[in-house]
Amino acid sequence: MQDAERGSRIVYDRFVAPLRTALLIAGAWTLIGFLGLMQYTAWEVKDEALVLEAVAANGLFAVAWALVTPFAQASASALFAARRAFTRIAAVLGLAATVIASYAVRLLLAGENPLQAVATDYAAAGAALMENVFPVVVIVLLVRNARMRRMNEQRRRDEAELSSTVARMQLQQLQAGLEPHFLFNALNSVAALIRDDPPAARLMLRQLSDLLERSLRLQERGEIPLREELAFARDYLEIQKMRFRDRLDFRFAVALELEAALVPPLILQPLIENAVLHGIARIDRSGVIEVHAAVHGGELMLIVRDSGPGFADLAPAPGTGIASVRARLALLYGNGERLEFRRDDRGFAAIVEVPYRGEAA
To answer: What is the pTM of this model?
Structure first.
């Protein structure tokens, strides 16, 4: 794919772009010549020969400048791109040569000898040369404007690419920060089983190893289908259920058509982890963790509810991974509030909102 794009770019730069420039130059001077022709033909002059002479002169002027404009354009581009005084002087001399060349080409097209014309009438030659200065000034201004526009566009592209790179690096750093936090809490669950049920602890370690490997693969992707996120969440809860046994039950209520929605990888895991540690672990009875999904106003709402006490005053405790979730959401979707906590008669809920978008076909 990259080779094809590079080849297309080479063809465009070497053939299409020069041809387009030539056609634009020819079209512009043809239009200028046509406007001049209309001006002259509109004169109410009885001397038809005088009108024809003026029309011919205007046409020769347009044709001559159509031929020398590429050289004026190249000299103007070299002038603005030059970094050394010598190069700038050479570019200015090139523009001056263009003025002279346009006058000479016009005389040659008219069948006259440029040197003889200058020698015959210095004043007329000087006036004609001064007449050719204005097109050079216009070309220089147009080249400068086009150069500034390209530089501004390139600057915007560079800034956008830099911002994207910085955001991607920040997101990767935040995602990487989840791994030690996730691993630390999971290993605590294993440690709690080692003395009471060593076989279960060994099984949990194997499942945890598989889960960590999957988490690394998931975090390499910018977004994943919700069904993959839910599958990871189920496996994580299965591991936690080995520790809490009958004290933990979980349910998923997600419509099948929503499972193709795209979400950030491992966006539910910290919320479910907090539901386990700050909800189920703090009650001495059986608890339930429920995961729901719904669409409202173009937003996909992911809800993790537990039957435990949750955070006091709805304020997350330090080190719970919530700050990382908020930071990831802000980097991906802007600084609007996309994570909130609620407490009702059914327990404590964490709610995440992300734009609702389905995976590409």
So the answer is: 0.52
